[in-house]
Design a protein that fits this description.
The chain is of the alpha/beta class. The chain folds into two domains: 6-236, YjeF N-terminal domain (Rossmann fold); 242-524, UDP-N-acetylmuramoyl-L-alanine:D-glutamate ligase, CATH 3.40.1190. It has 22 helices and 19 strands. Strand 5, helix 6 and strand 6 form a beta-alpha-beta unit. Helix 11 (271-283) packs parallel to helix 22 (507-524), helix 14 (350-361) crosses helix 15 and helix 20 runs parallel beside helix 22 (507-524). The termini are far apart. 54% of the residues are buried. The mean pLDDT is 94.
């Protein structure tokens, strides 16, 4: 984990963390539950303000999630809220610490009503015009679609929300799969989800992320050692974590010391892809990028590109880069720190031979995208030629061609699929989408928090490829270069959307936004834009 990354756990890992906190560190379950209720209250007040006098229904199951709900209900009552608590089970079915928290609620916080049938819970929620409803039904213990009284409670919560109430879910909206983010029928749709100790996968994967509304992580005092012992592989990259990955630029830098890159692509009708990637690489700080394109595109390159250098290559009868260009490209690759292969390359029969030849003969770190990935999908045994300093950036369709799996199956296990294939191929995999997941062959994985639907436009992947190339060329290791580029790319898109709206985020605008995005991260990293100034005049001491 990076110092500023947030761990993302499976339900099983979270159960292990809870058990270790009690067994190995002596933290009582009752104390964790008290802190969970207090954290949920704090999150509600932060989002909704003073809750005094508001009508709040807290709907609880009989497990630990229900126990958290009992604590929250008691604390809400102590704040002056008008709280009613419904238990969708028999009171005598409660055990251990959950039963203890139920007793505390009744003694100090208000009534606890048994609503153990579908008709009862529906009537309870329909009888009052609630301002808030708290879903404390199942939490991470949920499996499959809610049934029986739980299904009735979920539907009734939905009806209350439709009448204007705000819904707060503890840990998860009931009906979500904790590990895949899949939404069963029925499923609670929350305005705020308060999870405890750490994020879980359903919070960052769609459609779960949408069902959660705003998400808060409440610190309930679980020792870091309990989380570290589980060794979670997945993290959500924070802005501070991204800032920590920025390459340092010395005050004596010049274009030769901050990275030279070679970008290989372009074909008739697809020249814009390679030009966008080049524009992005320059925006992301590369010192010098050479764009290797078919000879017939050189005039267009000179008209479109100012900073990059053009390298004319041998071309096929179709105007794409020919395999005859391979020796010259390999020779040029010896003088750069990173390669990018694929934007606009085209799908000529010689493309696969060209890409494989570059993998085998060019040693520099590289990013492969677009038609470069299609060339790999048509080849065999390419993984043996790739190496851990190779970054692949497929979208779901490209990933399906590379793996032979259906796109829907890959989406259903987005995190695990990226991890599995990164390990099998021995490369860094950037599985693009919502959210984009970056996986390392050593088992690390980063979920990206930035980006928006307005970025679903042509050329956006080419902008990402250029950013990866730039960071590789500046000496950032492949996994860090990939996840930093993904964050910067998404954040640049968010900045565009904030000004223009999510329906207008063309790739060129996103590329142009990258320098200010890097400046934003540099401020977070504590790096001033300019070195301390030299003196403009001598100091003249005052006379005594």
């Amino acid at each position: 984990m990076t110092p500023a990354g947030l761990p993302v756990l499976t339900a099983g890992e979270m159960r292990d963390v809870d058990a270790r906190a009690t067994r190995d560190f002596g933290v009582p379950v009752a104390l964790l539950m008290e802190r969970a209720g207090a954290g949920a209250l704090a999150a509600m007040e932060r989002h909704f303000g003073d809750l005094h006098g508001f009508r709040i229904a807290v709907v609880c199951g009989r497990g630990h999630n229900g126990g958290d709900g009992f604590v929250l209900a008691r604390r809400l009552a102590e704040r002056g809220a008008d709280v009613r608590t419904a238990l969708v089970a028999a009171r005598d079915a409660l055990e251990g610490v959950v039963a203890e928290k139920a007793r505390d609620l009744v003694e100090r916080g208000g009534p606890l009503d048994e609503q153990a049938t579908p008709e009862a819970i529906e009537g309870f929620l329909a009888a009052t015009r609630w301002d808030f409803v708290v879903d404390a039904l199942l939490g991470t213990g949920s499996r499959g679609a809610p049934a029986g009284v739980f299904a009735a409670a979920v539907r009734a919560i939905g009806a209350v929300r439709a009448r204007g109430a705000r819904v707060v879910a503890l840990d998860f909206p009931t009906g979500l799969d904790a590990d895949s983010g899949a939404s069963h029928d029925p499923c609670v749709e929350a305005d705020l989800t308060v999870t405890f100790a750490a994020l879980k996968r359903a919070h960052v994967l769609y459609p779960g992320r949408r069902r959660c509304g705003a998400i808060e992580v409440a610190d309930i005092g679980i020792p870091d050692g309990a989380v570290d012992a589980v060794r979670p592989a997945v993290e959500l990259l924070s802005p501070e974590g991204a800032a920590a990955l920025l390459p340092a630029r010395p005050e004596t830098a010049h274009k030769g010391t901050v990275g030279r890159g070679l970008l290989i692509g372009g074909s008739p009708g697809l020249s814009g892809a390679v030009f966008l990637a080049a524009q992005s690489a320059v925006a992301a700080g590369i010192g010098l990028v050479t764009v290797a394109i078919p000879r017939g595109l050189c005039a267009a390159a000179q008209a479109r590109l100012a900073e990059p250098v053009s390298l004319a290559t041998e071309e096929t009868d179709a105007g794409t880069i020919s395999r005859r260009a391979l020796p010259a490209l390999v020779e040029r690759a010896r003088g750069v720190r990173a390669l990018a292969i694929g934007p606009g390359l085209g799908r000529h029969a010689e493309a696969s031979e060209l890409v494989l030849g570059l993998l085998a003969s060019a040693a520099a770190p590289r990013v492969i995208d677009a038609d470069g990935l299609t060339a790999l999908a048509e080849a065999r045994d390419w993984g043996a030629k790739a190496g851990a300093s190779t970054v692949l950036t497929p979208h779901l369709g490209e990933m399906a061609r590379l793996t032979g799996e259906e796109a829907d199956a890959l989406e259903a296990r987005r995190i695990d699929a990226a991890l599995e294939w990164a390990k099998r191929w021995g490369v860094v995999v950037v599985l693009k989408g919502a959210p984009t997941v970056t996986a390392s062959p050593d088992g690390r994985c980063t979920v990206n928090p930035s980006g928006n639907p307005g970025m679903a436009s042509a050329g956006m992947g080419d902008v990402l490829t250029g950013a990866v190339l730039a960071f590789l060329a500046q000496g950032v290791a492949a996994y860090d270069a990939a996840r930093l580029a993904v964050y910067v790319h998404g954040r640049a898109g968010d900045r565009v959307a904030l000004r223009h709206g999510v329906a207008l985020a063309p790739a060129g605008l996103v590329a142009a936004e990258i320098p200010e995005t890097l400046g934003e991260l540099a401020i977070l990293a504590g790096r001033p834009p300019l070195p301390p100034p030299l003196p403009s005049r001598p100091i003249v001491p005052r006379p005594d």
